[in-house]
Structure formats: C-alpha cells, structure tokens
Request: fold
Amino acid sequence: MPAYKAPLRDISFVMNELLESEKLYQTLPGYEEATADLMNAIVEEGAKFAENVLSPLNQSGDEEGCHWSEEGVTTPKGFAEAYRQYVDNGWPALSASVEDGGQGMPNLMGIVINEMAGTANWSWLMYPGLSHGAVKTIEEHGDAEQKKKYLTKLVQGEWTGTMCLTEAHCGSDLGLLRTKAEPQADGSYAITGTKIFISAGDHDMAENIVHIVLARLPDAPAGTKGISLFIVPKFNVNADGSLGERNAVTCASIEKKMGIKASATCVMNFDGATGYLIGPPNRGLNCMFTFMNTARIGTAIQGLAHGQLAFTGALSYAKERLAMRSLTGPKNPDGPADPIIVHPNVRRMLLTQKAFVEGSRAFLYFLAQLGDIVDAGNEEQAKAADDLMALLTPIGKAFVTETGYEAANIGVQVYGGHGFIREWGMEQIVRDARISMLYEGTTGIQALDLLGRKVIGSGGKLLLGFTSLIDEFCAANEGAEFVDVLKAYKDEWLGLSMKIGEAAMQNPDEAGSAAVDYLMYSGYVTLAYFWARMAVLAKRKIAEGAGDTSFYEAKLMTARFYFERLLPRTVSLKQTMLSGADNLMQMPEALFEF
Amino acid sequence: MPAYKAPLRDISFVMNELLESEKLYQTLPGYEEATADLMNAIVEEGAKFAENVLSPLNQSGDEEGCHWSEEGVTTPKGFAEAYRQYVDNGWPALSASVEDGGQGMPNLMGIVINEMAGTANWSWLMYPGLSHGAVKTIEEHGDAEQKKKYLTKLVQGEWTGTMCLTEAHCGSDLGLLRTKAEPQADGSYAITGTKIFISAGDHDMAENIVHIVLARLPDAPAGTKGISLFIVPKFNVNADGSLGERNAVTCASIEKKMGIKASATCVMNFDGATGYLIGPPNRGLNCMFTFMNTARIGTAIQGLAHGQLAFTGALSYAKERLAMRSLTGPKNPDGPADPIIVHPNVRRMLLTQKAFVEGSRAFLYFLAQLGDIVDAGNEEQAKAADDLMALLTPIGKAFVTETGYEAANIGVQVYGGHGFIREWGMEQIVRDARISMLYEGTTGIQALDLLGRKVIGSGGKLLLGFTSLIDEFCAANEGAEFVDVLKAYKDEWLGLSMKIGEAAMQNPDEAGSAAVDYLMYSGYVTLAYFWARMAVLAKRKIAEGAGDTSFYEAKLMTARFYFERLLPRTVSLKQTMLSGADNLMQMPEALFEF
Reply:
C-alpha cells in the first residue's frame, strides 16, 4: 500500500489560487476568520494526522476487518485509538457551527480534511463521516431539547451518528420501506424493523451512537410520502446528559464485503426500540433532502481519494520498475532496462489518473465552497449557489466516482501482475473504490436526478446557471488556450439537453436511455471548465514570474492531455446518448435469456 | 454466486450455424470424426460437468483459498476430487493429438469446454489449463525420450504442467531473467533460481508436476537471445516411468491475491534442481512463440467467461428485484414496484454484457478454428490462418478481457449495494476477472504487439488479410443491415493504420502513444464484423422459417444495440489515437510529482 503523502501544493493551488478562498470567506458573515494562513495551517495539521496516524492503518485494517459478537462490533487494531486522537484534536467539530459547539470553519475545510483522511484510510473515515447526516438532521429539524441532548456530543465526536434508511427489499426506492413506529404513552415511539447496510451502525470508538431512522407511523400514507424520521440512541440519554439504559437496537451481523472491510456495515435490528420523532410526521424524505447534496459531495470525495492514492502508488512504481528500453533508445543506459515511465502507454495511464484527480479536486472544492455560500451568503447568492449545487452534485457524485474507479484500476495496471497481489496494496484501492458508484445513489440514479429532475425538471434553468459561468470565463479569456473548445462544448451541451428534453416529452424512456451517457458527457465538460480555468491561471502565473514555474508548467501540460486525450470521450457519448430508446426498450424481457 | 447454466443454444449457434464447424472439419485431415452430432454431445457432457461439479465449488473455493505448508500446497475442498473426475472422464486429452494419447478432437472443442469450465470456476480451470504450455513445448521440441517420459501422462492429466517464466524483477521483459542452468556430467543441468507467479506450481491434484523452466546456460548471451528451456519434474521419473526421487524444486510460498484465490500462485525455488534441456540452447523464447497464440486465446476466454457469469447473475436479479415504477407507467401493477429490468439504464447495462459476451464468443471460436486450420490445413490454408491468428490474437486477448472486465463490473452495478456484498458472488467475478488484463501479456503489451509487430511490422499485410475477409462478407451481402457501416469502418481502420504507421516512421513513440486506443478500436471493428455476420445469418434463418424465431430476433436486436451503442466508442478512440505523442512525452519525469 503506497504511504499517503498529502498533495499540499495542489490543495493549496486549488484552495488559495484557483478558488481564492480567503477573498470569498472575507465576504461571508461568520467565516471572516478563515484566512489563508489559518486554512493552510489547518490543512498542514490534517495532512500530518492523515499521513502519520491513518495511513499506517489502511492495509492492516483491510487485512483484519471488523469483528462481530453479541456484545457489538470491534474495529481493527488502532482504529479506536486513532479516533480518540481525532476527537482530542478537535477535528470532528472543525466545520460545525459555533452555536452547536463547532469551530465554525467553512464546509470547504471539512472537505479538504476528509479528502486527506479518506485518501489515507477511507474505511476509517466512514466512522466519523457518517455522523454528518445525523448532525445535519438534528441541526435543521431537531427541537431545542433534542439539540441539547444530542448535538454537542455528536459535533465534538464524543458520540457518532448513523443514517438508517435501507431495508433488504429497498435501497434506491425508499417508498417501499416497512419499519414501523408506534406511538407510546410518553410521547416517544416504539421502532420495529430491520435496516441493512448501516455504516458505523455499531463500533467500539465512541460511547454512544445516535441513529436517525426512517420509519412509518401507523396512519402513514403508502410510498415516500409516509416516511418519518426518528432519533434512536444506542443508549438512552438521561435528562442530565448521562447515559441511561441500553436501547432495544442491536447489530445483528456485519456484512462480508469486497472492500472497505475495516468499515462495519451493519444489519441493525430495532426491536421496539425507543425513538423520538424529529421533524414533521410523514415528511422525513423532504427533511433529508436538505443535506442530500453535501452527503453526496462527501461520497464524491471517495473518487478523488482513491484516484489520488492509486496515482501515488503507480507513479512511484513507474519510476522504479525497470522493463524494456524506450522506443526511442535507452534512457537508462547504465541499467539493465529503462524505468517504465519512459513508455508512452505508461505515461498515458499516469496522466489519465493525474488529470482526473486534479480536475476533480478543483471541481469538488468548488462544490464545497458553494455549500458555504448557501449557508452564509445573502439570499440572492445563496439561491444561485444552491441552484448550481443542485445541478452539479449528481455530476460530481457519479462522474468523480466513475473516473476515480478508472484511476484505481489504472493503479493496478501500471504494476502489472504485482498489482493483483495484496501485499502491494494496489488491488485494495480497487476493492475499496468499487462501492463509491453504488452507495449514496448509484450512477444510474444520479443520472436520472441530473437529467430528469435537474435539467429537464427546471426547464433548462439550472443548466443555464452553470453555462453562464462558463460564458463569463470564456468572455474574460477570449483567445486563451482551450477557451474556444470549451465554448463549443458549452453550446453543444445546451443543444443536446434541449434535444433530449424534447424527445423525453414524447417518451419518458428517452430520458432514461440517454441519462448515464448524458451525465458522463456533462462531467467531461464540467471538468474541461475547471481545466481551462487552471490552465489560464497557470499561464498567468508563469507570465507574472510567480516562481514555482515547473508546477504551473505541469498544470498546463496536464490540461493539454485532458483536452486531447480525455475530453474527446464526449464524441462517443454524444452519439450514443442520441441513439434513442428503441435499441434498449424493444427487446422483450424473455429474449434477454439466450 | 450465480449458478452456472451453460448457454448451449448460443454455443451451438456459433459452433454449428455461424462457423459451420462440421463442414470445416470434414475438409481437415484428422478431424473427420468431428461431426456436429459428436461435437454437440461433447459440449453437452462438458456443460453437465461444469454445471454440476465445478460451479458449486466456485464460491467456496474463493472463501477457503489454498493452503501452503512445507509439504506443499493443498487446494480447496472438492478441487482435487473434481480434478480426478475430470481425468477419469478423459477431458484433459480431448483435443490432444492421437499419437500423444489424446482424442484428436479439434482445438475448438477444447476452447468450448474451457469456456464452460472456466465460467463455472476459473480458479479450478487454472490447474489443468496450465498444462497446455508444457504439453505444447514437449510436443514440438521434445526428443523421443522426453516425449515418452512426460507427454502421455501430461496429455491424460495424470500429471500437470507449468510454465516457469517470471522472476521478481522481470515479467514482460524476460530478457532480464537470471535463473541459471549448469551442465552436469550426466548430460542434465542443475537449475538454480527463483520464479514467481507460477500458477499451479504446486498442488495436491496430481502425483507429479512437470515444470518448463526458462533459464540461462553459463555461456549464454545477455538478453532474450540467451534463454533456454528446461524440463524440471517435481519428482524425477525413472526409466520405467515410475516416480523416483523428489527433485530440488519447492514451493516457497503462495501469493495472497485480489481474486482467483483458489488458484495457487506459487513462488518456486529451484535449488540445483535436475533439469533437462528441451529444444536448442539459447532459443527458448523462439520455441515458446510457437504456442503463444493459443495460450493467449486461452486467456482471452476468461473475458468471455466472466462476462457470461456476470450477465447470468445480473439478468436474474434484474427480473426479480423490484424498485421504482417504469418511466412509462407501471409494468407490474399488482406488485409494490416494477422489476428493474423495465428501466432503460438497467437494460443498457444488460445489453452491453450480452453484446460483448456473444460477440466475443463468435470471435474466439473463430480464432480457435483458425488454430485447427493451422494444425491440419494444407500449406496455403495454414499460412493464411496463421497470419490471421497473428493479427487477431492480441486483439482477442486484450479486447475480450477489457470488455469482459467491464461486463463483470456491470454485474456488480446491476445489484446495487448488494453487488458489493460477498454473499451474492458478483464482486468475486470482478476480483477474479481483474487478472485477465495483466497476465499472459498486459493490454499495453498486446497493443504494442498488434500495432508494432503485426500491423506495422508486416507493412499492413496481416491487416489486409483480415480486411479482405470483411470485404468478401460485405460483397456477398450488399445492402444487408450493418454492411455499409462495417465497410466504412474497414476503410477507416486501414486509413488509420497507414497514418499511424507513417507517423511512427518519424517517431517510434507515435506508435506507443496510439497503441492501446488502436487496439481497442480494432477490437470494436472486429466485433462489428462478427455481429454483422450473426445478424445476416439470423435474418436469413427467420426468412427461411427455421424456427426458434425469438432466438434469431434477439440476435438481431443485440446486433442493433452493438452498432448503435457500443461501436460508436470508436469515434473517440479514433480522435485520441491521432492526438499524437506530444501530450504524453513532453512532461519531464520530475513534473509528474505535483
């Protein structure tokens, strides 16, 4: 397993130079303290924690996995200690609001820290990471007593949280869920049912776990409009905040999985467990929509993280491993062969990883900043940022995890046969990365959300919100490298959206048939926007003699690679997304068999 | 893990209808017995063995893995018994020549049986599968005594064989290998060195293992021209054929791998082991070239196999799993939701698997038939078939395994979160399939072989050999569906080859930079040829009223899907392969770092 080394120069480039974070946060009430100095200092501390504490536990955690017994789940050696350090250093509270006991740093800081922690050890990050949904739910929908009881402990990481949604027969289609909530005389509810795929559903890292459970009230309408949210703590909490009795919620088993084996994926039994209604009855799904975007961006980070780790490993191997001579003559004449980084195809693989990773970092940090504007900007700013997030989040979640998985697989490929051997750690990255295209909404679900709800659903308005940013950038940088290409893509994207929208009005299956290709196309164009911005900036920095020239030159070369070798994938996607629904829908179910 | 059900109808379609095997074999001396009746009977028996004996051991073999001790390797429960049955039923000898104790069936039969056995349990197939190289080496290069001593036992499966090539510091670049062979007074050699990645290097299935070892004689020139082949048996063989002393070759350890865990991947120590030179000294690599093509086709089968298994699992899940309603209104109104096969994107995924699998089956069976023509055709036929194989084998190996891996990943995706859980078996298919793009020459190595050695190296002659087949087909079927498109692709393929060939004359890195995209492009066009052939045939069968209409209709619809949704990937590949070497080569090694 490659040791994690945080890409601090690139993080700083995106955070400070490309997105000019200090400048932004000086204008956002409550974030004035987020100066570049402070943010850089936080990132450097986070890098040390990720490199020194989390990274060494990544491979051992995979080997050991989690242990289940009737008493509960035990995490791999070192995980609980690392979590204790994480809490002691105040990391969980970093970007939570001050009134809830947080440190009030921007959401962007949380994303950067999660990128580093997650690259070092994604399985470990799942434990604190899953608290996010519980915190957000209570923050936005809890009453004063609920906040007092649960929020500070969650924010500070003394307790962790979960989101209990999925049941065995329903994942994407939550309308089918069956868990029941029966009102009790004391105003609480008795929750009964079985939830599956509950990440961090049980563990030995914190003294209490606060489950947010989706369940149905006795009189609830069928489908998605009859779902309510309940707080179900592992240990009941007394009025004075101390822990009371064990609640009737238990971990029945943990799943054996392809990857993220050190993350406990639990089957949770609620056996008349005491729960407390949070938010209005039957409106649970609506309540959850309020933080769906940030949760999905949190998952998108996994694509960036695994791409980064695979790139780190592949690059160091490509420099060391000797095989064959360069096609243009020996580059290492004193050695028995050349390092494989001389070979064009190895460079193609490395640059593919690099272009996806660095492009995705710019994209996702931008999304995180939007979240901060939604939280702290004025009404107009917040509305615009929220609209952009609505459009870009499904693209970020699906495109970054799909390309991150490609990058992870390239990591194995660069190692040749050694990539398949566990000892080197490259295959673990593939196994860990595979889940990212499945949970928090599969790629197919994200694609329907993007094309159906966001693009067609808004009559194109949300898309125009983003393409007007592209227009602005192009207008301001006319004649610059990549700008004309980007502009043409922007026009094509709008045209394709219109065309598919029209076809979908005649036949809704046309949208479903185009959706995934449309999403991937949108992802390539979105990344082209960020690569063009980075290239323009890099060129300016070189012209200004800002120093660090080779860093900026590398950015320019990677941008060229992106535009010439990755962006052209859109040409095929365009053709297939327009090929119509017939080639998918005409085959009768029975004929698939043969 | 989906239970294996052999796709007998499709196997028969390709073998009997598309490739008209009986007709071919009636013209090939020695294969006259291979009537359709006999071949179908063999396939049906093979299907039973794969379904009933091998398939039930697939998931348990993965769970248990192999066990190493100083005494040797123990395979998972049931593996040795299955192998005993396999030998007792005469399967190993099926397509070996009669004079060596084989049954003299065509190579095609061996490929069909291997497809079925390998789909049911790829790890298990690795044990008998690896004997192929040893058999071929001894068959073609062994002297009479060596043949007598080793060949019959290997052919009948009483013993198994290995190929000991790779060392820790060299995989693709065998010129770097260091294992030594020192001549002994009795004419034998003392072999000393360590080989890695030796599949079936040790096991408990057969009483002896015959290793073919690549090593250097004391006076050997450096590089690939100083490699010789040696027979090194695990147990020395006495003059009467009985087993003698244990030789000084031991399995030092077995690798922990991502997948194919039930296949023992051994580190083999040769500690002055007794070996026997086979073939001329220093010409070992040349000797191995004689069966490189068939070995690579054997690996290509893995892509077909894992694609087939993933499709089987995904299809049955897509029919059963209920989620959401069809975009065009409920299709299962009495149920709580529709089966997910109603959703366009799920169909897109299933059809992608189906089109790759069925197209690859036609492609690989065709390649296997070419092998039979090489073996038994007259000189002119054999030469033409050999040329076609030289061109098509790297395409088959790389394209079928790459698309097979895509199909395996789709299998996981169709299952959603359940795909990541081991119990369902879908993730095992991905883990098992991942090696296929690495061993027996990575995709990058195949691409250089195709573009550099085969296409450019023959001055385009080998490519013209295949495109003339496409021409013939197009001429004979003018106006038929897909024929014009295919013809245009054929022209474009020739044009691209010319263009890249010319660029490579100026700068060899241009070939290296285009190679993988060129190979994938070639794969899509090759599969288009087979899909067009299958479509024309299916249409004729429907017109003739041959019965089984829905089978032929499904073929036609799948062909349309292939042409409209998969073949357009070439449009991007064309653009990227022509983007030049600069975007790969200009970045100095040090600048990758950032």
Remarks:
- Residues 394 and 446 of chain B are 5 Å apart (CA to CA).
